[in-house]
């Protein structure tokens, strides 16, 4: 991907520089998957629908699957169970009721585990755990993870004995977190960490000064934040230009996991939002699949959805991800994964599950139904959910709708 291609996407989507950079690699995913803004068929879909579709690039998934599972491995203690909690009072316009959201979260936990809040905690955590709360800060204030939901989760953890200093709100890019309201002022004592930094002015071409993101040896300043020993290998070359390296940290055939995930966190709570990615979705599996590793841009066209499955198969995610809570208070049914206000709507729903694949199947169908209700032309080709069935094949979750227990409250 050349420097020119980064800038041409900016003009094509007609977004401002900061919002363009915020979407980063996911904008590339949207371009591949197609959408109403582009108005052209998906390049990725065209490849998949050809009679002689290109073979899937080799990855190191077979090695990973040989690593023994643990008692905390996904799909967790409630495989195939998804709890949906709806309350019309959660959001009214742009105002979110912290009290109602907290009640919804507690109710969802109870219905998921069958026990009270304290017993639910003991089923999933210990007081000594270092808990990472993976949020989605993209589309800050519009479609990003609501602060009130994160407040409720932190209060639950802290009330059951987890030190606030052992709770870390995280995402891949550091600058997105404060933009979305995840600041040290709001969350005193709680850690707030991005796996990497990125120089926006250099990425946009406004500056030729690379000193803010390259060290004297020519390596990305965030390279030390990633684990040289834990990586997703895919037989796909990465672009060698500086804008790509700035955004993706390395440009080899390795996508290294963040050390925060591999070395520091002992448990993960995944808190994505409910939105589409073309005819697919960007919810539980993608919120981790494309955030726990670097060097993801090269993976979009050949492995876009499979990344969401195979990255979650690594012990760093598989054995630590114990709870998923989808923020569906406000959702987006079209134009995704980039934030698009005209396609967002107040939905007032939370989804809870220990099984990210069952959860994504329920969310995929919910977004599909919404798209149809809004007269959006949809493509129901199985390729948009094949990655979920792939996850079931690997023993990571349940994707067969007939086997999913969908509890509505």
Explain what you see.
This protein is α/β, with parallel strands linked by helices and 409 residues long. The chain has one domain (3-204, 217-408). Helices cover 36% and strands 19% of the residues. It is built from 16 helices and 14 strands. The protein has helices spanning 3-13, 17-33, 43-49, 61-65, 98-113, 117-124, 147-159, 176-179, 200-204, 242-248, 259-264, 284-289, 300-310, 315-318, 356-373, 386-393; strands spanning 81-86, 91-92, 95-96, 131-135, 167-173, 191-196, 226-233, 254-258, 267-271, 273-277, 280-281, 321-332, 344-353, 405-408. Strand 10 and strand 11 form a beta hairpin. The chain starts with a helix and ends with a strand. The model is unreliable at 1-52 (pLDDT under 50).
Radius of gyration: 20 Å
How many helical stretches? 16
Alpha carbon gap, first and last residue:
46 Å
**Share of β-strand residues:** 15-25%
Notable traits:
single chain; alpha/beta; ten-stranded mixed β-sheet; two-stranded antiparallel sheet; globular; disordered N terminus
Secondary structure blueprint with pairings:
Blueprint: H1 3-13, H2 17-33, H3 43-49, H4 61-65, E1 81-86, E2 91-92, E3 95-96, H5 98-113, H6 117-124, E4 131-135, H7 147-159, E5 167-173, H8 176-179, E6 191-196, H9 200-204, E7 226-233, H10 242-248, E8 254-258, H11 259-264, E9 267-271, E10 273-277, E11 280-281, H12 284-289, H13 300-310, H14 315-318, E12 321-332, E13 344-353, H15 356-373, H16 386-393, E14 405-408
Parallel strand pairs: 1-14, 4-5, 4-9, 5-6, 9-12, 10-12
Antiparallel strand pairs: 1-13, 2-3, 7-8, 10-11, 12-13
Helix pairs in contact: 5-7, 13-16, 15-16
């Amino acid at each position: 991907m050349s420097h020119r291609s980064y800038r041409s996407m900016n003009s094509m989507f007609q977004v401002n520089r900061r919002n363009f950079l915020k979407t980063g690699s996911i904008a590339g995913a949207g371009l591949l998957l197609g959408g109403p803004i582009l108005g052209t068929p998906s390049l990725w879909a065209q490849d998949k629908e050809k009679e002689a579709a290109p073979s899937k690039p080799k990855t190191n998934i077979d090695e990973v699957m040989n690593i023994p599972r643990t008692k905390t491995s996904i799909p967790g203690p409630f495989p195939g169970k998804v709890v949906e909690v709806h309350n019309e009072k959660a959001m009214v316009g742009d105002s979110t009721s912290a009290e109602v959201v907290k009640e919804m979260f507690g109710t969802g936990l109870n219905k998921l585990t069958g026990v009270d809040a304290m017993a639910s905690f003991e089923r999933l955590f210990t007081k000594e755990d270092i808990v990472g709360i993976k949020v989605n800060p993209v589309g800050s204030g519009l479609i990003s993870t609501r602060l009130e939901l994160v407040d409720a989760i932190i209060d639950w953890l802290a009330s059951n004995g987890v030190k606030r200093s052992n709770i870390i709100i995280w995402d891949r890019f550091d600058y997105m977190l404060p933009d979305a309201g995840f600041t040290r002022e709001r969350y005193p004592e709680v850690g707030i960490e991005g796996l990497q930094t990125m120089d926006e002015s250099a990425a946009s071409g406004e500056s030729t000064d690379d000193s803010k993101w390259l060290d004297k040896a020519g390596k990305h300043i965030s390279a030390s934040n990633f684990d040289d020993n834990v990586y997703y290998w895919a037989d796909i070359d990465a672009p060698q230009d500086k804008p790509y390296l700035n955004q993706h940290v390395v440009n080899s055939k390795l996508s290294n996991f963040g050390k925060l995930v591999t070395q520091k966190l002992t448990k993960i709570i995944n808190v994505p939002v409910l939105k589409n990615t073309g005819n697919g979705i960007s919810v539980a599996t993608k919120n981790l699949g494309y955030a726990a590793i670097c060097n993801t841009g090269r993976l979009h066209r050949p492995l876009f959805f499979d990344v969401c499955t195979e990255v979650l198969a690594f012990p760093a995610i598989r054995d630590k991800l114990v709870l998923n809570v989808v923020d569906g208070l406000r959702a987006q049914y079209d134009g995704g994964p980039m934030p698009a206000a005209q396609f967002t709507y107040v939905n007032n729903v939370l989804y809870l599950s220990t099984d990210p694949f069952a959860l994504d199947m329920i969310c995929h169908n919910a977004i599909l139904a919404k798209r149809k209700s809004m007269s959006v032309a949809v493509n129901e080709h199985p390729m948009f959910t094949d990655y979920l069935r792939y996850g079931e094949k690997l023993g990571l979750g349940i994707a067969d709708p007939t086997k999913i227990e969908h509890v509505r409250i």
